[in-house]
């Protein structure tokens, strides 16, 4: 029985089929296969959604941020120089005092008597010396030894009088500096000894803020460096660095700086914590971008920017040189021009040449 192939309603013999296939050219077969393969492998071009930020020059201050401790300009514990019973307290706690102002009086009756005795002895010795001097120098009466003895007794008596007067004066305790009487350790009737602390005086205007600067900034911070000091209360003060330490602390690898700020009305208190920003440098037209927008490439740092050519918007890579940064942004010193649309969202998903679509409305960014 002869085998036949059915094609619709017609019967095609195997031999006829072979003749038909042989009549097809080899070029047509290859072209048709390539077209079919191309249709199966073609994919749509990738478009990445991104957000951009225009590179715009703006003022920038390169600052070192530190945490500092507030200290008084002068903080003095005043001690008694003579012992005795406190007879009078002249200034209350919290009062303003001036340098040399009397604060406390100690019982001086004994020292007053000793001073009176020393003064009388000094007067007698002085009178004896003048008489002996006249007899020896004018009348040549007496001996040179008696003359010298009278002279030295007069000088000794005068020195004893000065000692007694000084001790008597010390029974009145005076303020060595101007400031606020912050504390008093004695009361009327207390017995004090020489060297015992009696009051504390604080001069809180201006204030000193001490902070530690990391050693990597050595050589960049010097006396006179401008500083901005802020406090938790919201107050801000401008000051200048008045002291820069010579040695680096081996424990925390910092060197000490001291900044002075005015404190009118004593609104700020010693012992507070302050944030100190030391100004290392500044620029009026720096280009800053978010730190996350800067990526590390094979040849250094890079950013992606959006460029539109012939109606096609693509991502381009730019090699950049970075500078100092602050508050999550970094200065681009080279590699960007004003107006460049820097990709700040989606930069991790794009590559150079990718088609992109800008989803935010940043002016000049392209679309």
Mean pLDDT: 83
Order of helices and strands: EEHHEEEEEHHEEEEEEEEEEEEEEE
Shape: elongated
CATH topology of the largest domain: OB fold (Dihydrolipoamide Acetyltransferase, E2P)
The number of helical segments is: 4
The beta-strand count equals 22
Helix content: 10-25%
Total number of distinct structural domains? 4
Q: Please identify the structural class as seen in this structure.
A: alpha+beta
What's the CATH superfamily of the largest domain, by name?
Answer: RNA polymerase II/Efflux pump adaptor protein, barrel-sandwich hybrid domain
Biggest sheet layout: 8 strands, mixed
Give me the Rg, rounded.
47 Å
CATH class categorisation of the largest domain? Mainly Beta
* CA(first)-CA(last) distance: 73 Å
Q: What ranges have pLDDT less than 50 throughout 5 or more consecutive residues?
A: 1-43, 362-367
Which percent range describes the beta-strand content? 35-45%
What does this protein look like?
Helix 3 (109-138) packs antiparallel against helix 4. This protein has helices at 14-22, 26-41, 109-138, 144-169, and strands at 5-7, 10-12, 47-54, 58-79, 84-89, 96-97, 102-106, 172-174, 179-184, 191-192, 197-214, 226-231, 236-244, 254-261, 273-286, 288-290, 295-297, 300-309, 312-326, 329-334, 341-345, 355-358. It is built from 4 helices and 22 strands. The protein has 367 residues and is of the alpha+beta class. It folds into 4 domains: 5-36, no CATH class; 49-60 and 285-358, conserved putative lor/sdh protein from methanococcus maripaludis s2 fold (Beta Barrel); 64-72 and 203-282, Efflux pump adaptor protein, beta barrel domain (Elongation Factor Tu (Ef-tu), domain 3, Beta Barrel), CATH 2.40.30.170; 76-198, Beta Barrel (OB fold (Dihydrolipoamide Acetyltransferase, E2P)), CATH 2.40.50.100. Strand 18 (300-309) and strand 19 (312-326) form a beta hairpin. The strands form 4 sheets. Strands 3, 16, 17, 18, 19, 20, 21 and 22 form an 8-stranded mixed sheet that branches. Mean pLDDT is 83; it is low at 1-43 and 362-367. It is 22% helix and 44% strand.
């Amino acid at each position: 029985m002869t085998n036949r192939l059915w094609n619709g309603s017609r019967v095609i013999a195997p031999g006829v089929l072979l003749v038909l296939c042989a009549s097809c050219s080899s070029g047509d077969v290859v072209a048709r296969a390539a077209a079919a393969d191309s249709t199966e492998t073609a994919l749509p071009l990738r478009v990445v959604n991104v957000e951009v930020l225009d590179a715009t020059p703006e003022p920038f201050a390169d600052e070192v941020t530190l945490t500092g401790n507030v200290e008084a300009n002068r903080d003095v514990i005043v001690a008694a120089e003579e012992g005795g019973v406190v007879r009078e307290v002249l200034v209350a706690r919290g009062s303003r005092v001036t340098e040399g102002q009397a604060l406390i009086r100690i019982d001086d009756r004994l020292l007053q008597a000793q001073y009176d005795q020393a003064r009388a002895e000094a007067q007698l010795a002085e009178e004896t010396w003048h008489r002996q001097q006249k007899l020896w120098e004018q009348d040549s009466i007496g001996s040179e030894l008696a003359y010298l003895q009278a002279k030295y007794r007069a000088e000794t008596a005068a020195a004893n009088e000065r000692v007694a007067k000084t001790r008597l004066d010390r029974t009145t305790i005076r303020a060595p500096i101007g400031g606020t009487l912050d504390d008093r350790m004695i009361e009327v009737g207390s017995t004090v000894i020489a060297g015992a602390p009696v009051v504390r005086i604080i001069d809180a205007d201006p204030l000193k803020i001490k902070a530690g600067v990391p050693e990597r900034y050595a050589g960049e911070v010097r006396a006179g460096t401008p500083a901005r000091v802020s406090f938790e209360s919201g107050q801000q003060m401008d000051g200048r660095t008045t002291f820069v330490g010579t040695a680096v602390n081996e424990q925390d690898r910092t060197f000490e700086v001291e900044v002075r700020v005015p404190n009118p009305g004593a609104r700020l208190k010693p012992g507070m914590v302050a944030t100190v920003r030391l100004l290392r440098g500044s620029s009026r037209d720096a280009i800053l971008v978010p730190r996350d927008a800067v990526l590390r490439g094979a040849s250094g740092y890079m950013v992606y920017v959006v460029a539109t050519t012939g109606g096609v918007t693509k991502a381009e890579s730019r090699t950049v040189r970075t500078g100092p940064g602050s508050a999550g942004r970094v200065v681009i010193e080279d590699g960007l021009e004003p107006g460049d649309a820097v990709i700040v969202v989606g930069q991790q998903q794009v590559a150079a040449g990718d088609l992109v679509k800008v989803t935010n409305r940043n002016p000049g960014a392209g679309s």
